[in-house]
């Protein structure tokens, strides 16, 4: 789907009296192709029923496209002037702000306008972003392939005395060698009891023989993310408890994926199936996070696979399934894959 078509679909849901101000860099990239290169504010996307305007830093590379106007400035005076112009020209009454992605100073600036301020319903953006088109799916699958191959190669090179930080560095270099453009998120490498903390960050702890090793990692390709976790036993004398937990978690993953194959499956049902499987095995309290999440240009996107989400899992969605059991002071075991639902 072209960026022009994405903008047109978004504008269909905009009333004639409102203007949307989109600030989240991934939302802006999805609708325009504009890539934010720094942590600083580089762009705003202004949307009305009739107009799509990308205001961006003068230093930022942009490409022209049909139905999208450009203005090379995001200065406060320019932004307010542009919004006043549109208000007068199109009879606008309300300004829907992406409050999760703007700064207080920006909010105060826009609040001074004559428009009624309301919170942008980002659900209308996510409804478009959740379903990946063929090109998006291709990019995600490429990121998955790079991650799978890189992680397999790195696990094969584990050696006594390597630190978590050294394994992280080796893995990330392997990803680059395989064609990754950047990481999807900070890599998790956890030895022994460190793996009982789901989001542990690597330290200088050294790998010893007969130790649990958990690695959670992801790459990006054409901006799109992958997310993968493997937990292995390093050594030839695996702990009995580790083998027990490994069997439970892998069986739970199979249960969840079988539910995914059923028609009209929901996020709630996926989480319930995984949670019930682990609870029946006696470790329900040790499964301390959701069963998974959507991903795409952002590493965490809707739908969240949790007990309260009735969202149907639809063809074209990309989701993770990641059951886990975490035994404090001992080890954690998580198994995670990214799945593109019913390839189109």
Quick overview of this protein structure:
The chain is built from nine helices and 18 strands. It is of the alpha+beta class and 344 residues long. The strands form six sheets. The chain has a six-stranded mixed beta sheet, sandwiched between helices.
Q: Return Rg in Å.
A: 23 Å
CATH C-level class of the largest domain is Alpha Beta
The coarse silhouette is elongated
Q: Assess the beta-strand content as a share of residues.
A: 15-25%
Mean pLDDT equals 95
Strands side by side in the biggest sheet: 4-3-2-1-5-6
Model regions low in confidence, pLDDT < 50 over at least 5 residues: none
Please give the alpha-carbon distance between the first and last residues.
13 Å
Helix and strand sequence: HEHEEEHEHEHHHEEEEEEHHEEEEEE
Q: What is the CATH topology of the largest domain?
A: Creatine Amidinohydrolase
**Helical percent range?**
25-40%
Q: What is the tally of beta strands?
A: 18
Number of helices: 9
For the sheet with most strands, the description reads:
6 strands, mixed
Tally of domains = 2
Which structural category do the helix and sheet elements fall into? alpha+beta
CATH superfamily of the largest domain: Creatinase/methionine aminopeptidase superfamily
CATH architecture descriptor name of the largest domain: Alpha-Beta Complex
């Amino acid at each position: 789907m072209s960026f022009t078509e994405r903008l047109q679909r978004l504008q269909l849901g905009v009333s004639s009296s409102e203007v949307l101000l989109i600030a989240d860099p991934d939302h802006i990239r999805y609708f325009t192709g504009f890539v934010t290169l720094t942590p600083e504010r580089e762009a705003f996307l202004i949307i009305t029923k009739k107009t799509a305007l990308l205001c961006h830093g003068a230093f930022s590379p942009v490409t022209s496209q049909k139905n999208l106007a450009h203005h090379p400035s995001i200065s406060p005076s320019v932004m307010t002037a542009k919004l006043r112009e549109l208000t007068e020209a199109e009879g606008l009454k309300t300004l829907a702000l992406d409050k999760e992605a703007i700064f207080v100073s920006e909010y105060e600036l826009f609040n001074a306008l004559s428009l009624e301020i309301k919170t942008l319903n980002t659900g209308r953006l996510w409804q478009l972003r959740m379903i990946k088109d063929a090109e998006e799916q291709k990019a995600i699958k490429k990121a998955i392939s790079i991650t799978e191959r890189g992680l397999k190669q790195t696990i094969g090179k584990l050696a006594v005395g390597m630190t978590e930080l050294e394994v992280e560095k080796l893995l990330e270099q392997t990803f680059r060698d395989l064609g990754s453009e950047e990481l999807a998120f900070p890599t998790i490498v956890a030895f022994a009891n460190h793996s009982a903390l789901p989001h542990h960050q690597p330290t200088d702890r050294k790998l010893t023989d007969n130790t649990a090793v958990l690695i959670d990692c992801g790459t990006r390709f054409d901006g799109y993310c992958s997310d993968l976790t493997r937990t292995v036993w390093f050594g030839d004398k695996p702990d009995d408890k580790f083998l027990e937990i490994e069997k439970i978690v892998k069986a739970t993953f199979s249960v969840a994926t079988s539910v995914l194959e059923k028609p009209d499956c929901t996020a709630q049902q996926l989480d319930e199936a995984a949670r019930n499987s682990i609870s029946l095995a006696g470790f329900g309290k040790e499964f301390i996070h959701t069963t998974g999440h959507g991903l795409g240009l952002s590493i965490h996107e809707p739908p969240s696979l949790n007990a309260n989400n009735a969202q149907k899992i639809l063809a074209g969605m990309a989701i993770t399934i990641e059951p886990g059991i975490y035994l404090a002071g001992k080890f954690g075991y998580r198994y995670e894959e990214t799945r593109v639902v019913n390839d189109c």
